[in-house]
Amino acid sequence: RLRPRTPTGPTFTPRPLPAADAQTFLAARAKGSTTEDRWPCTGEVDLDLPAREVMPWVGDGEVVPLSDGSCRLTVGSWSWTGVLAAVARFDAPFTVVGPEALREAAGMLAQRFSAAHSSS
After folding, report:
1. pTM of the prediction?
2. Counting C-beta atoms within 10 Å of the first and last residue's C-beta, which end of the chain has fewer, N or C?
3. 24 within some domain
């Protein structure tokens, strides 16, 4: 037999959120932060694909058409390698616009891929 308890349990003192509101806090946590709804690493690339082919797949990124066959993609991730992985999934030529940390990560990744390719 069950008997309801009144009140329904112990009370607690709510603590303040580290972000401005609950939505921002939850979005920030998904991106590895507690206070801001933004990725720790955000980079820009020029992608050799039309913007209309890229837009459906970028999530919270941004796509700006540059010409009929190219666009600028701004995308974020937890790491610079993650940014490059997000770009590489389009399987199209691209040029890193910035920042410098993204260029450095692209160079490091190029060396890794080259070493993996030459060792086979």
Report:
1. 0.77
2. N
3. no
Q: Which residue, among 75, 114, 86, 83, has the nearest Cα to 101 in the 3D structure?
A: 83
How far is Cα 101 from Cα 103, in angstroms, rounded to an integer?
5
What would the pLDDT profile of 61-93 be if each residue is shown by its tens digit?
999 999 999 999 999 999 999 999 999 999 999
Length of the chain: 120
How far is residue 37 from each of residues 2, 23, 33, 118, measured CA to CA in Å?
44, 9, 7, 41
Q: Confirm whether 2 is domain-assigned.
A: no
Question: Is residue 26 in a domain?
Answer: no
CATH of the domain at 63: 3.30.70
Alpha carbon 35 to chain centroid, angstroms: 16
